[in-house]
Specification:
Number of strands: 10
Order of helices and strands: HEEEEEEEHHHHEHHEE
Oligomer: single chain
CATH architecture of the largest domain: 2-Layer Sandwich
Number of helices: 7
Strand content: 15-25%
Helix content: 40-55%
CATH topology of the largest domain: Tetrahydropterin Synthase, Chain A
Number of domains: 3
Structural class: alpha+beta
Distance between the termini: 162 Å
Shape: elongated
């Protein structure tokens, strides 16, 4: 009887072991597996072997890991931050600027980003860099330049300065956009009035230049015609005029519908008196 029980225990042991493993798998499944969603990537934290793994970024999909390790997931899509800020122009005037930035973490250096800055990198490095660059760049320009002629240049300079900072912080900056610039009403009115006057001055200058060019063209045209007339008058001698008059009279005489009387005048030129009709 005892021998039979021992045999049964030996048979039950593998079954019990399998059941125990299944129970442990159910309990720890969430600790040993992780799914990285689309547009994201993972950083592995190794509890007993060095902490953050800075050598590998885990891609989208399903991954197994030891239950004592942890996977930190980051969004790697392009993201946007918009900042309203008060900045000073070159002459000390306070201006309100609405600036936005398109950014994303550097995929290959995601482990370094997590280890040295952390998941809150937006607040820790992106926003401060954008604000500092915007204040620095806008502070080099006058309100008139900011409002009108230099807006694109300012935008490009803010982008370059912010990008240089974030490249060292494992963040890629794709674009900086100035969405709006708000000046004090009195300054804005003065600038718009000045720009309007400059536009009217340019229009007047254009019309004046156009009139001057037209007068010059007419002068050249008149001079050409006068020169042509001088050449023609110099070539028309009495003999040539007499010959052309005779030729024209002969051509008229050939017409079947014309009957003319031709007599010589004092200079020998033919004279047409009229037809018989």
């Amino acid at each position: 009887m005892a021998q039979q029980q021992e045999v049964n225990l030996k048979k039950m042991f593998p079954i019990g072991l399998v059941v125990l493993v299944l129970i442990l798998l159910v309990i720890f499944w969430s600790r040993i597996t992780v799914t990285v969603e689309a547009g994201h990537a993972g950083v592995l934290f190794k509890t007993f072997s060095g902490g953050v793994d800075t050598t590998q970024t885990y891609s989208e999909g399903f991954h197994f890991l030891a239950p004592w390790n942890n996977m930190i997931v980051y969004e790697t899509r392009q993201q946007e931050i918009a900042e309203d800020m008060n900045v000073l122009s070159s002459n000390g005037l306070e201006i309100k600027a609405d600036v936005s930035a398109w950014y994303r973490p550097q995929y290959e250096k995601l482990g370094l980003l997590h280890g040295r800055i952390g998941k809150d990198y937006l607040r820790r490095v992106v926003i401060p860099s954008l604000r500092a660059s915007a204040r620095s760049v806008i502070g080099r320009y006058t309100p008139e330049q900011i409002y009108s002629t230099k807006r694109d240049a300012i935008q490009d300079e803010i982008f370059e300065e912010t990008k240089n900072i974030l490249d060292e912080k494992y963040v890629t900056l794709n674009q900086v956009l100035i969405r709006s610039i708000v000046l004090p009403p009195t300054i804005k009115t003065a600038i718009e009035s000045k720009l309007k006057q400059e536009q009217e001055s340019l229009e007047y200058k254009f019309k004046l230049e156009k009139a001057q060019k037209e007068a010059e063209r007419q002068k050249i045209d008149a001079a050409g015609k006068a020169k042509a007339n001088d050449i023609l008058n110099a070539s028309l001698t009495d003999k040539i005029l007499r010959e052309k008059g005779i030729s024209a009279t002969l051509e008229l005489a050939k017409s079947p519908n014309s009957k003319v009387v031709i007599i010589g005048n004092s200079d020998g030129m033919p004279l047409i008196l009229g037809d018989t009709k």
